[in-house]
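Recap quiz, item 2
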Amino acid sequence: MTAPTPRSPRRSDALTRDRIVEAAIEILDEEGESHLTFRALTSRLSTGAGALYHHVANKDELLAAATDGIIGRELAEVQDDEEPAASIRATSLRIFDAIDAHPWVGTQLSREPWQPAVIQIWKVLGTQLQDIGVTGSARSDAGSALVNYILGAAAQYAAGARRIPDDGDRKAHLEALAAEWTRQDSDPLVHESASLLPEHEDRAQFLVGVDIFLAGITARR
Amino acid sequence: MTAPTPRSPRRSDALTRDRIVEAAIEILDEEGESHLTFRALTSRLSTGAGALYHHVANKDELLAAATDGIIGRELAEVQDDEEPAASIRATSLRIFDAIDAHPWVGTQLSREPWQPAVIQIWKVLGTQLQDIGVTGSARSDAGSALVNYILGAAAQYAAGARRIPDDGDRKAHLEALAAEWTRQDSDPLVHESASLLPEHEDRAQFLVGVDIFLAGITARR
DNA sequence: ACCTGAACACCGTTCAAGT
DNA sequence: ACCTGAACACCGTTCAAGT
């Protein structure tokens, strides 16, 4: 244990790990994943590259910390519903919405299974699964299915949203994509999928997936 | 001028897109994702960078083509079982095994939703869902849930396998990870998960996830 | 201890020049 | 048309030198 050392007044702009992670989140949100570089960070924080490495091991750790920051804030808001299945739906939607607001989080979450943000998700959903009466290795199996579904959907929707912006042109984009599919492929199933594409809503479809897994977990209990 | 043109041993034929994709798959399999560079490719194919760009638009397209090559070969082997649910299990396991053999495929599949390999997976599973009696927008919802689960699990297991090699030390690695979890976290749920970790089998757990999904589809039909 | 910023060892991609 | 390979505009990371 160290004795409380008297310190000189902290410079208000002292570099800390948190400040670096915050700056990284700003760049990721404002300019996108490809613009997060150590050079952009040093410029935004008016420092040198070596200073950043004094607080952060490398870029992977920085991305994991930024992701953990976003997911942590979101999961802190989770309030358990009286109906345990409703809590699982709410948690899943929170994660979906966080990724919708920060697409880079969707990419990062599927990159490293034991990063802090993924462990957080596991813990919250694991507890909620316990609440609906799933325990032991069944909980571990159900949790893995649900987490893998959420992370997979997250990555796909995030990548899709990056390509097809959710603006006024969204429907036109989806119609163009549907037209491309039907042109390239005569399979009637592809045609049917293409016809459904323009009306497709990511968030609603994501929730249907959560419900399918919940129904499956209940059916097998 | 003297007679026949000297050629380097690997360069016995003209450069084609297929030859480039094959060489990329070799590098990815033998040396890993981080070693696939255009410089490594030019060296293996005894050519220049510009020549590669004459056949392939960029690195993303090359990775998508390599992934499509692996997935295409694997799905071509799919034979429909008499029991339609068994066909879905078999297809899912084929994709899992392909990713187990080529971890980079798992990473790539979750990067771009409308790449050829993902569309192939959609088509095969969509047809098999049709066979168990799911049609219209229900098929689209179920297909999205199943594909997202498979791709999410694929990415997680592939990233995990990269960190914890499936060799004699696997169990020791998992025990060390479990010990780390329990040290950092006193939550009894985390302790229970940690105790299950060393005996955990990715492939079996993946299949349980597919079964949960199938049970959910059946329950909601 | 904390920070600076030049230097190192790479990248993907382009393009004038060759056959 | 197809190919070559140097050049360009970047990267993440390191490290001797400063305060």
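The domain at 80-220 of chain A is CATH 1.10.357.10 (Tetracycline Repressor; domain 2).
The two ends of chain A are 51 Å apart (CA to CA).
End of item.
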